[in-house]
Structures are given as structure tokens and as C-alpha cells.
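Could you help me review a protein record that somebody else here produced? This is what I was given.
***
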Amino acid sequence: MSKSIAVLGLGRFGKKLALGLYENGADVMAVDRDSKLIDSISDKVTYALVADFSDAESIKGLGLEEMDTVVVAMGSDLTASIMAVMISKEVGVPYVLAKASDERMGAILTKVGADEIVYPEEEMGERTARILVFDSFLEFFEIDDNLCMLEMKPKDEWIGKNLKELNLREKYSMNVVAIKNKNGMKSHINPDKPLGEDMTLLVIIDKVDLKKLK
């Protein structure tokens, strides 16, 4: 059975999240106070509803008690976010994830019942910083507090050498889990095949070892 998820607030983060969830098979209720936003997304999610987030009765009328997860994505509107989190937990939503603009807001939303807090702007800033500092990085994804996954171009000195010669696990404490070229991504890696400029490596590495790749 598909997971039912309500996304409250359709700013850039909320709208992209709602669309992504629906594309990946979830039943998505998208909610915003702006009727034009709702009209623009109504045929791309399961349900699209208008609600006033400053009105408790309006939020209660959404039927959030039927949801497996509620994402409170208003971000900068602390009062509306607090109300949405509290009502979601009051009606029995098992898991409430809330977007916060800073740590103070995150602490308040945790206090009133949010199960998890996300800081999209902060996380995007960190990821962009790493990509700018490490010029071979194309993408950076956190797996947990210690581990991350990178999509990166081979360093210049790696070109023409194979994985056996490079011994990347020993030298950089990293694992190459897939290689992508013009033919697509392959997880079955030939360790004897030289790396080319057209290749992209998918790598798993501890964050503390990132400095080795400078």
C-alpha cells in the first residue's frame, strides 16, 4: 500500500518535495493557502487543498489523522508551523517532519512535537561549499553523521590508471561503488580498466577523510 504523506506549504522546498514524493509512488496531499499554487499542482499530486495555516480549524479539517507522515514546510512562518505540528501530533500522525529556517526555530518545533527537523538552506549551503572547495566534486550527499556519498570526476593524476594501481581504498579510505560514462552507470566495476576523463565515480567515504581528496 502506498504511503500517505501531507505536505503543508508549497514554497520551493514544499512544492519540489510534493512532486518528488508523488513521482515516487506516494499518495500526496499538497496544501497551501495560495489557491493559484494549488491550481498549478492539482493534477500532479493525489489531492491539492487550500487551507489557512493560521486557523486551527482549517488545519483540523484537512483530515491529517489519515496520513502516515506530515511535512510542515512553511519554514519562515513560525506561528503557522507550530500550529501545524501541534495539531498533526494531536490527531495522531505517527511522523511529523518540519522545515526550520534556523536552530532556534528547529528547537521550538521539536519542543511542540516534531519528530525530525530539516534545514534545507543550511544543508544546501554546506553541500555547495564542499563542491566549491573540492573542484572534482559534482554532487555531495550525506548518508549519516559520519558517512557521505560523492559523485566526482577522477583527479587528473588518476586518468589512465586503473583502480588496482590507484589503490583508492588504502590511500583515501574511500570505496568506489559505481562508475558512470556516456553508456550509463555501472555497479559492476572492472578494476583493471583505466579511468578516463569522461568517467564519473560514485564514491562512499567518511567525512573525516574528505580532506585527503584535496
In short: The helical segments are 12-23, 35-41, 56-60, 78-90, 103-111, 120-133, 163-166, 168-172.
